Amino acid sequence: MTDALKDQVSALIEKYQGGEDRRQALLDKLVEEGEYEGTYAYDSALTDNEGDAADDLAGLLRELGELVKVTA
Q1: Is 1 helix (H, G, I), strand (E, B) or coil?
Q2: Residues 6 or more apart from 63 whose CB is under 8 A from it?
Q3: What are phi and psi of 37, to 5 degrees?
Q4: 72 vs 67: CA distance, rounded Å
Q5: Reduced to 3 states, what is the DSSP secondary structure of residue 39?
Q6: pLDDT tens figures, 21-59
Q7: Is the Cβ–Cβ distance between 64 and 12 less than 8 Å?
Q8: Which of 3, 8, 52, 61 is deepest in the core (most CB within 10 A)?
Q9: pLDDT tier at 1 (50, 70, 90 boundaries)?
Q10: Are 27 and 60 in contact (CB under 8 A)?
Q11: pTM metric for this prediction
């Protein structure tokens, strides 16, 4: 793996990890506010986060697939 490719993969990881960090921070904030698993607010946010995480995974896989095609 070339250094340029490593840099591109690292940038993608950072990009998508940022989304995961924001999703977790939202759940942490809800817990600090007294929400917990089983409350509407928490469960609603968790459901939204799961959908967003699935979308991010699909996006990451798509972008990695494009990198593989370009570098092949």
Answers
A1: coil
A2: 12
A3: -55, 130
A4: 8
A5: strand
A6: 999 999 999 999 999 999 999 999 999 999 999 999 999
A7: yes
A8: 8
A9: confident
A10: no
A11: 0.83
